[in-house]
proline dehydrogenase (Streptomyces tuirus), 303 residues
Amino acid sequence: MISDLLLRAAKNKKLENLVSGHPLTKGLVHRYVAGVSLDEAIGVAQRMNSEGIDVSLDLLGEQVEDLAESTAATDQYIETVQAISDRAPGATVSVKLSQLGMAVDPQACAKNLDRLLEASAAVGVVVEVDMEHSSVGRPTLETFREALPRYPQTRVAIQAAMRRTPEDLESFTDIKPRLRLVKGAYDEPLGRALRDRKEITAQYLFLTDWIVAHCPDPAFGTHDDVCIEHAKKAAAAAGLGKRDFEFQMLYGVRRDVQRHLVREGYRVRVYVPFGTQWYPYLMRRMAERPANLLFFLRSVVGR
Ligand SMILES: Cc1cc2nc3c(=O)[nH]c(=O)nc-3n(C[C@H](O)[C@H](O)[C@H](O)COP(=O)(O)OP(=O)(O)OC[C@H]3O[C@@H](n4cnc5c(N)ncnc54)[C@H](O)[C@@H]3O)c2cc1C
C-alpha cells in the first residue's frame, strides 16, 4: 500500500519540485546517489574497484520531454563512457531509453542509442539498458533487439514481475542476450504484472534457472538472500564458475552482502547513480523499503 503510494509519488512533478528543492533530503539522497558530478561518480567507482567491486554508472534522468534533452543526455553518456575508459576500466553504463527520447520519438531514441553503443564499443565499455515501466518496456526491448546483432555485448534488464517476461525471453531465437534479472521496480497493473511478493520471488527463481541454462554471462540484480543463494546453486549446477556470472546491487544497499560475496570469490557490480535528477530514483528505492519513509519524512519536516 505505502509502496504503491510512493511509486505513484515518483511520477508526481509537483512533489518532485517540493522534495528536490528541500535541503533536508540531502542525507537520504546521499545514501543512494554517488554525487551530482561525473567526477564524484568516477571517484566512487575507483573506491569500489579498490575493494574488488565493479560498477555500472547511471546518469540519473528519465522521461525527457523533447529531443534536445535526449540529445544532451546521449552526449553526457558518451562523455561518461570516455571517462570510464580512461579512469575506471571495467565499469559499464546503465541507461534508460526514456532518457534517450523513447516517449518523444522512438526512431530518434534508437539513433541516440546507436550513437552511444558505437562510442562505447570504440572504447571497450559495455552498455546496460535498464527496463522501465511497461509504457516504454516493449519499445525498449524491441530497440535493444535491433541493436543486439551489431553490439552483442550489450546487456538488458528484465523484470521477473512482468507476466510477459518468459515469452520475451523465448522470443530471442538467434542470439541469446546478456541479461540482468531484476524483480521490477515500477507500479504496474495486475493484468500485466505479478504483485504478490512471494509470487515475484518464485518467478525470479524460475527465471534464474532458465537464464543460467540459456544466456551468456548472466547478472542477478537483487539483494534478496533467497535469490542470491538460489543463483549460486543454479549456476554451479549448470557448470558455471564463480566468475562466469555476476551479482548486481544498488549503491547504498546491503554493502555487507556486497563485500561478503566478493570475499567468497563472486563477481559483484554495484549500480552507481549520479546527477541531479534523483527524485524518481529515490522514490523507487523508498518503495522497496517503506521503513525508509519515516526517515525521509523526518528529514523533509526537519525533525
Ligand atoms: C543492479 C540493479 C539494477 C536494477 N535495475 C532495474 C531495472 O532496470 N528495472 C527495474 O524495474 N528494476 C531494477 N532494479 C530494482 C529491482 O527491480 C528491485 O526493485 C530491487 O532490486 C529490490 O528487489 P530485491 O531483489 O533486492 O528484493 P527485495 O525483497 O525487495 O529486497 C531484499 C532485501 O534487500 C534490502 N533492500 C532492497 N531494496 C532496498 C532499498 N531500496 N533500501 C534499503 N534496503 C533495500 C532489504 O534488506 C530487503 O529485505 C534494479 C536492481 C538492482 C540491484
The mean pLDDT is 92. The radius of gyration is 18 Å. Residues 67-87 form the longest helix (21 residues).
